Amino acid sequence: MLLPHNPNAFTRSPLDRAGHHRGDRAWLEATLDLPETRLIPFFQHRPFVIEDHGVLGPGWLHGLSRGRIAPPDAPLLFLGLDAQKVAHFAIDIPDAAPLGEVGRFEDLRALGPRLSREDLSILGPAKSIFEWHAKNGYCANCATPTLIVEAGWRRDCPTCKTEHYPRLDPVCIMVPTFGEKVLLGRQKAWPRGMHSALAGFIEPGEAIEEAVARETLEEAGLIVREVRMHSTQPWPFPHSLMIGVLCEVENDQEKIDTTELESGRWFTREEAQLLIAGKHPDAWAPPPFAIAHQLLKTWAEEG
Ligand SMILES: [Zn+2]
Residue-wise over 255-269: b if at least 16 C-beta within 10 A, else e? Predict the structure, then answer.
């Protein structure tokens, strides 16, 4: 797949991560004080948003305003530089009160469909990193409190010197197909009529294709014959990397594992097109924001 063709939300960030600046404290400090530098606050892993005439967008502040909204030790993250070389930072603030009058903090997942791809691609990594910081304050090797370094992209242990990198969980997400039919699953907790792709974490020692085959067999009792890579999606809830595939299975005799799914249902290609268009009479699929939608869309349009 050509890079500009990734259809997924949270991809194709307009920022250059400019990782060579991460270890340069003097550059970071000086850059934060530039009037054009942009800063997005997060509170309890929720980005700050402002609604202006019904249009919702990230509540970008000036880098200089950080002293007014956060203590000096608030976790700070250098996100990168835009095409005009303007630096973008995120900051995790401990108190929402100083900004209460200006805008609000909202859950990124709920916000997702209302924000542009560009905004999501900038906010996503900040959400993942701040959540990782919040849960990883101590060294996993020796239990000493660790320190944030590399402009927010690493934690170092001052005692045993272990370097801790942000966690990323690879997940395979797949739509099994058999000829002109596609199988979607349903979890009990989902809203009525919702059906989606199968998915599961990839385990150590597994190739992606092997994880796809194992999960498809475990969840639906189907043997995978062929795996076709589709696209991938950073999914910051909290820090997954979704690896989307289409897989052809040996037959349509599914046997759903009801501890994981409530049911499975085969849809024809015509029905898949209706699901994508939101016009199926009694079922619906996730919105374009989710990679499951893109997988189904690709298959539906191939017919
Ligand atoms: Zn340590």
Answer: ebeeebbeebeebeb
